[in-house]
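Lab manual, section 2.4: Encoding a predicted structure.

Procedure: take the sequence of the chain (56 residues), apply the prediction step described in section 2.3, and record the output as structure tokens. A sample record is shown.
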Amino acid sequence: MVESAMGMSAAQFQNTYAISLMKRSMDDAESQAISLINEMVAAVPPPSEHSFDVRV
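Recorded output:
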């Protein structure tokens, strides 16, 4: 009885640990994606103040 309870506790701990690692990696990936998006947005020049059409 005690062994089965300990086995279940170890399995629950392992499952909780695996889930927390997965959440942490997802948070890291999210922060990397946000950083990349911010860098891409900063690299785009602002639109021109003047708006005119050039016709050929």
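Check your result against the sample. The helical segments are 2-43.
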